[in-house]
Amino acid sequence: MVVYIDLIFLANLLIDGVLLALTAWMRRLKPRWWRLFLSAAAGAMYVVMIFVPELKFLFTFLIKFGLSLIMLWIAFGFVSLQSYLRNLASFYMVNFAAAGGIIGFHYMMQNSGDLFKGIWYTASGGLTFELKIGFWFALIVFFVVILVFKGVQTNRRQVENRESLLGHVTVCIEDKVIICTGLLDTGNQLSDPLSRTPVMVMEASLWESELPPAWVKKLSEGEPDKLIMELGETDYVWQDRLRLVPYRGVNRGAAFMLALKPDSVRIELGGKEYVSAKVLIGFDGGTLSGEGAYRAIIHPSLLEGEGKPAPCKDTKYLGKQENLV
Q1: Which long-range contacts (CB under 8 A, 24 or more apart) does 141-144 make?
Q2: How deeply is 171 buried, as exposed, middle or buried, from its count of CB atoms within 10 A (0-12, 13-18, 19+)?
Q3: Are 234 and 241 in contact (CB under 8 A)?
Q4: Residue 249 has pLDDT above 90, yes or no
Q5: Radius of gyration (C-alpha) of the chain in whole angstroms
Q6: Of 47, 92, 132, 290, which has the fewest beta carbons less than 10 angstroms from its beta carbon?
Q7: CB atoms within 10 A of CB 257
Q8: Where in the sequence numbering do the catalytic residues fall?
Q9: What pLDDT does 239 receive?
Q10: Tell me, what's the pLDDT at 322?
Q11: Spatial separation of the C-alpha atoms in residues 197 and 301, rounded to whole Å
Q12: 9 contact partners, CB below 8 Å, separation of at least 6
């Protein structure tokens, strides 16, 4: 059997470098590239030593664990014990995910005959498993597993970041109350050009019972200005509260949004409560979140000021509508 030491060294150098870089990404660290390179080189040199019979004593659990500590110290330094332990936990989590993915992929590709060929019975009646994974197979699957792992972690971060911007929205008009979950959009600058009143966008379906018949369907089809023209034929109790707000959408020209002037809007976000009366509720005829995580877009100006501590209650509402008479 011919073993190419240089190929094994380079492959492990690349793998260790990717694992360390992914650990830094998970921990939101930005180490210097040469530190990652030296750390990965130390790990790759350790693997090469397996071919030196005199160094067999190095391949024990304590030596392997000690090497991982040294690699992390080279790559990220020692800021504090807590930070160091978190780096260690993240490093092993990435390693176990990669190794488990390779083994799982290997057995998924095998048929029953190949699987039973690798099972041996011991003299005591136990079972042992022989694992044979090709070098190039392991290398290719490793990068596939890493890409999948990073994609899952990225999606988890996005969900966590979005949840930190979710708030409990309560809109009051006379004796009617509409409750839903809203997402704070810091880039939202939509406002009435005349009065400079901020516009908070909500799904029109939340207001279906409070709007004239068929309005929600027509809003989903666009051209809300035509609804205002039809009001002459409709006796709508909130007619004097309606507004048309011009705006410019993405990849489209100027358009209008139908809006309603509420009595007040209360928003609970980040443990604080904000109440505003200077606000318009813009109606969106579609669905703001495909997952149903929120049904309103909160204007950032509605959260200006100190706010006051929010009452202690469950604020996780998803599209709940409640009429109080």
Answers
A1: 141/101, 141/102, 141/105, 141/106, 142/15, 142/18, 142/98, 142/101, 142/102, 143/18, 144/101, 144/105
A2: buried
A3: no
A4: no
A5: 30
A6: 290
A7: 22
A8: 185
A9: 83
A10: 42
A11: 10
A12: 44, 45, 47, 48
Q: Helices in the chain by DSSP H: which ranges? A: 5-26, 33-48, 61-76, 81-109, 112-117, 135-163, 215-220, 225-229
Q: State the CB neighbour count (10 A cutoff) for residue 43.
A: 21
Q: Report how far residue 244's alpha carbon sits from residue 225's, in angstroms, rounded to the nearest whole number.
A: 7
The crossing angle, in degrees rounded to 10, of helices 5-26 and 81-109 is: 120
Q: Which pLDDT value is given to residue 203? A: 92
| Residue showing tokens 């309603």 | 260
pTM: 0.56
CB 129 within 8 Å of CB 227: no
d(CA 190, CA 246): 9
Q: What is the pLDDT of residues 83-136, one digit of tens each?
A: 889 889 988 888 888 877 777 766 666 655 554 455 544 555 554 555 555 666
Exposed, middle or buried by CB within 10 Å (0-12, 13-18, 19+), for 185?
A: middle
Q: Is the pLDDT of residue 27 over 90?
A: no
Q: Which amino acid would we find at residue 219?
A: L
Report the pLDDT value the prediction gives residue 101, as an integer from 0 to 100.
77
pLDDT tens digits for 8-17? Answer: 788 888 888 8
Structure tokens belonging to residue 74: 């080279």
In this prediction, residues 295-307 reach a mean pLDDT of 85
CA angle 238, 243, 246 (to 5 degrees): 160
CA-closest candidate to residue 69, choices 85, 47, 57: 85
d(CA 69, CA 66): 5
* Residue 251: how many other CB atoms lie within 10 Å: 4
Nearest to 205 by CA among 287, 280, 297: 287
The encoded tokens of residue 207 equal: 């207001």
Cα 38 to Cα 29: distance, rounded to the nearest angstrom: 17
Cα distance between the two ends of the chain: 85
Place of tokens 């516009």: 199
In eight-state DSSP terms, residue 310 is P
- The set of residues, in sequence order, having a beta carbon less than 8 Å from that of 144 and lying 6+ positions away, is 101, 105
